[in-house]
Write a structure and sequence with these properties.
single chain; alpha/beta; Rossmann fold; 2 domains; 9-stranded mixed β-sheet; elongated
């Protein structure tokens, strides 16, 4: 697209980003809820996807996907990056862009952009509107993609999506979010309803190509909560465990603070692939790029810095070098998991020896705790007697007598 004299693509893009910032400030939007990250971050994400396999790109057709595409900026930048790299390698590539967006206004902009470019048929691959939430209504359930990148909404409730999907107990979309892993046929990836950003990543992982030569490559922006939220056995921890045990995570890049227009929170780029090169297998690279930025002459909302061309090159070079430095740390996959053990012991109190077969109510147990002294030699306080052939939830073994206590047992789960 050509612009009037004096306005190049960069200048027009800067004007557009300023309009985005003002629009979202007026509507009290959260940073992770709208559009895409600043274009400097988008360019970095595209390079992290394509540069590692630049020499392996062959002539052919490639499918690109963004499950929270906004106005389509990420897809456009990724497409341009791929074509530029292919041209440098003397290859001829064709690209098809696929995107899904729940916000009607931004979806309309993405659709209109395709039409204005004369890509009418391609516009059909951009799907959106309030009824097309990526989590509850996947527009491309049977598709697999070569390259995927996204900035999903983070810190935003997806409770309404969960209800449309049938709730946690009646989920109607098991292939994406209830999978088979590590011998568990119902391994749940369902996260807390207060934040669904990790489910957007799980959605992308479900669309990876497993039979092609290059497989699939993914870059997705998250805030810090994706790194640590979720207890052992919960959705967030299960997603991280699923990713790491499959050896899909290549790197996590910590971006500078104040990169977004209306927030100063920390953000991270996750880089994943199901075709890790030999020297990366079994390892994850963590890159601290928080100090690699250039300050803006004038703040744009809370955004006070940007990634210059030099900064992007430095981050990409660090990623490609895959070496230990002050800003680059490399860990074995096993370093990200640990065993969380819950040991349940029966309550033993002095003073109940003569009534050891009695079943106590919760209020009575509370009173006993306050008045009686603990003793390892005293008989256990019975809270509940299970029927023959049944067992408490913490112990899957069948009960062989009527004196099985609910508090007995030992649970072991892996936390990631």
């Amino acid at each position: 697209m050509k612009y009037p004299p004096g306005l190049d693509n960069h200048a027009v893009g800067t004007v557009f980003e300023e309009l985005v910032r003002r629009f979202n400030e007026e509507n009290n939007e959260e940073a992770g809820e709208h559009w895409t990250p600043p274009r400097d971050a988008v360019k970095l994400m595209a390079r992290l996807i394509f540069l590692p396999i630049a020499d392996e790109i062959a002539s052919g057709t490639y499918l690109l996907y963004d499950g929270a595409c906004g106005t389509g900026g990420m897809l456009t930048v990724a497409e341009e990056t791929l074509h530029d790299l292919a041209e440098e390698q003397g290859k001829q590539v064709a690209t098809h862009l696929y995107g899904q967006e729940i916000n009607a206004e931004t979806y309309a902009i993405a659709k209109a952009d395709m039409l204005l470019k004369g890509e009418g048929e391609a516009a059909d691959n951009i799907v959106g509107g309030p009824e097309y939430s990526t989590l509850s209504n996947d527009a491309f359930p049977s598709h697999e993609f070569d390259f995927m990148l996204s900035n999903p909404p983070y810190g935003k409730s997806w409770k309404s999506d969960l209800e449309r999907m049938g709730g946690k107990t009646g989920l109607r979309d098991p292939p994406r979010f209830v999978i088979e892993h590590n011998g568990d046929p119902e391994y749940s990836l369902i996260t807390r309803s207060s934040d669904g950003q990790m489910l957007f990543l799980a959605n992308m992982l479900s669309k990876m190509k497993h039979e092609s030569r290059l497989g699939s490559r993914i870059a997705e922006v998250h805030n810090g909560s994706s790194l640590f939220t979720g207890d052992a056995g919960q959705g967030e921890s299960n997603i991280r465990r699923w990713i790491i045990e499959n050896d899909w995570l290549e790197a996590i890049v910590a971006l500078p603070l104040n990169m977004f227009y209306n927030t100063g929170i920390a953000t991270y780029i996750w880089v994943l692939t199901n075709r890790k090169p030999e020297h990366r297998r079994g390892k994850v690279q963590l890159i601290d790029a928080t100090k690699w930025y250039k300050p803006l002459r004038k703040n744009l909302g809370k955004k006070n810095c940007h990634l210059s061309e030099e900064d992007c090159t430095r981050i990409c070079d660090t990623f490609l070098a895959f070496e230990e430095t002050e800003e680059s740390k490399i860990f074995e996959n096993a370093a990200f998991g640990y065993q969380k053990v819950t040991v349940e012991r029966p309550l033993r109190l002095k003073g109940i020896e003569g009534d050891c077969d009695r079943v106590y109510k919760a209020k009575e147990i509370k009173a006993l705790k306050e008045t009686c002294e603990r003793s390892e030699t005293a008989p256990p306080v019975i809270k509940k007697i299970h029927k023959k052939g049944t067992a408490p939830r913490s112990d899957p073994r069948p009960v062989r007598n009527n004196d099985q206590r609910q508090a007995c047992g030992r649970r072991v789960r892996t936390q990631f």
